[in-house]
Design brief:
homodimer, 5-stranded parallel β-sheet, 4-stranded parallel β-sheet, alpha/beta
């Protein structure tokens, strides 16, 4: 499902082939936790250039439930997104959002953050849930540790993550999941195209199950976890449990020891990362895929990522500015609106402001990946990386 | 600025000619209080069929201020709306939102509902503010009474409204406002078309100033007010101070005595109305123009207007429904989304739900006006009206 097209140092340009389109890598996936990129229609998200997004098993299992989504034709049809979707396993959310979480080797039980009801997830049920959702890439249940984590517990969580990955894989094979069992994305003739696949029907769907490398901030545990997962032979590998407070230096060090253990012909996905600097640092270390709430969450708070750095739309200096948010951006927000208007919307508490800056921020992250890819293809990623850092003077 | 094309009983079909397009009447104007139709982009609003919208002098004067909007090229460019805009005078808002309001014959002073600052509006300043905003239709400052209002006070407010209307008109003439002083709508070549005017530049702009009929629920005061305003010869007449708690019977009675006093060749605008039933009742009595927050406010609360009545999207019965919101609607929401997904969005507190139902509701109101117009043109408005009432069985 992955084609490596070019390398530049450790940085890679490739293609991820999914049932919902071929995705150029490096790729950034906007986050649609509850089957919606907050404040935006899927048409707007596609208009910002995104071709693949992330949604959450944990949230969708709790509400509306995978059976409801399956009854409504699967996640793509449910949310009217014809591009690719990766679903996170819920591991991270169980440990960060849920209450009274209990972990055993069997799985996790916890109280829902919505209504306090008791919920259990196992490696097997998490695969079944994602099969019903019909995402293009599914993640196995993992145990995500916080920072800092004692070595003993980090090993225990890593061992469990590997064991769960093996069970997830076996369960998926036993259930015979492949082309025959996955939900095709029904495309209704009357629905508007969001043009990602040129309107082509997707007749069959093969969901890929990635492995997730854990091991906290211990290089040897990271290496061991990666090797054991590679032995299990997944079509792609995620690196989890980073960007949880350990700081960029430690994160980069973990990438430096982990990535070389992963096969060159498989995609590498750094989960939950991150600010533009971190994305480029990770690309420089051989990572291909990313997701993060930053463009949308910061967008809702009026923080805009631009070619000259982060600008705060609520700032009074923008009140009469006829400048676009980012003069070098061609997203719908920058084409159609001026800073003065955006500032007014935030000051007046209007939702449209959140939507327009979220839209721009997604376009910014998408273009950053496109620019990085072009630099890799032409052998000048290092220069591009340095130029980008230098350009970010506005704070 | 108005062409009467057909009548059917008292109901009228016509055209309102504005610097930003010719608007078919009856027309419903969605409300963009703070220079945005809440939760929607102007492209989405245009996509729902709206060609004219309303914005508020009161709110825009307080925030961001008419000078800021003028510096940013006027209201149309500020909010990227190339259709027509009517601005309310602020009279209604001063009496409903502001604090410590004092009315004298000179004007009104009040405390801003935003920051408590002291603000004064006069008939003259309200015209000047709207000239700076550059709306297509401006309204004079009026004194809007609540319900019930004693007769003495209703007369006093009506007298003041007439006097202010005369001063507004004189001030507008004295200032020589017409083609030369109004702000043209600059259309930037790089901006997306929202296609209302086929992309034509609007080289000059003549803002129309309407008169507003007050008189509370006293037929003789309404008649007197209408006659005195007609003597002043406005290009259009609004009927204000209704739908404030007096009920549909009294409102219809007020329309029945007021409308016959207004010239047939001028548009008639019923301010702040209303539910579909009230719109059709008013059309039946000769009204041409409407505005109301109902489609957007109810949309944000998950109440959808449909061809079979109002449905509540939060209701559990929609959880697995693959039906569109309204099977007889071709708006983007009904083309692309099912009730099950919309219900999920409301249950999960997602803004996209508010946006999609607001969009549908605007399309519903726009189509109701189009259908009414077609019925008038073919001499079957009465039947159309009765059929519509009968169709609204869902509650």
């Amino acid at each position: 499902m992955f084609r490596l097209l070019a390398t530049d140092g450790l940085a890679r340009a490739g293609e991820l082939i999914t049932p919902h389109g071929t995705i150029s890598t490096p790729v950034f996936m906007p986050v649609g936790t509850q089957a919606t990129i907050k404040t935006l229609t899927p048409e707007q998200v596609a208009g910002a250039g995104a071709k693949m997004l992330l949604s959450n098993t944990y949230h969708l299992h709790l509400r509306p439930g995978e059976d409801t989504i399956a009854a409504l034709g699967g996640l793509h049809r449910f949310m009217n997104w014809s591009g690719a979707i990766l679903t996170d396993s819920g591991g991270f959310q169980v440990f960060s959002l849920a209450e009274l979480t209990k972990v055993t080797d069997a799985g996790v039980s916890f109280r829902s953050h919505i209504d306090g009801s008791l919920v259990e997830l196992t490696p097997e049920s998490v695969v079944d849930i994602q099969a019903k959702l019909g995402s293009d890439v599914m993640m196995p249940l993992d145990e995500c540790t916080s920072f800092p984590t004692p070595r003993d517990y980090a090993r225990e969580a890593m061992e469990r993550t590997v064991a769960w990955a093996a069970r997830s894989r076996a369960h998926r094979r036993m259930r015979g999941m492949g082309r025959q069992e996955c939900l095709p994305h029904r495309r209704d003739e009357t629905r508007a195209e969001n043009t990602i696949n040129g309107g082509a029907d997707i007749p069959v769907c093969a969901q890929a199950l990635f492995g997730i490398v854990q091991g906290a901030t211990y290089p040897d545990l990271r290496v061991e976890c990666a090797r054991r997962l590679v032995e299990l032979d997944f079509p792609g590998y995620a690196i989890g449990g980073l960007s949880v407070g350990e700081g960029p230096e430690v994160m980069n060090r973990m990438l430096e020891v982990t990535v070389p253990e992963l096969p060159a012909d498989k995609p590498r996905y750094l989960m939950g990362v991150g600010p533009p600097d971190d994305l480029l640092d990770a690309i420089a270390r051989g990572v291909d895929m990313f997701d993060c709430v930053l463009p949308t969450r910061n967008g809702r708070n009026g923080f805009a990522f631009t070619s000259t750095g982060i600008i705060r739309m609520k700032n009074a200096r923008h009140a009469r500015s006829t400048e676009p948010l980012d003069a070098s951006c061609d997203c719908p927000t920058c084409r159609n609106y001026e800073r003065g208007y955006l500032r007014h919307l935030f000051r007046a508490g209007e939702i449209l402001g959140m939507a327009l800056v979220s839209l721009h921020n997604i376009a910014f992250f998408v273009r950053l990946m496109e620019d990085a890819r072009r630099a890799i293809m032409t052998g000048r990623f290092k220069e591009f990386h340095a130029e980008f850092i230098q350009s970010q003077t506005e704070r």
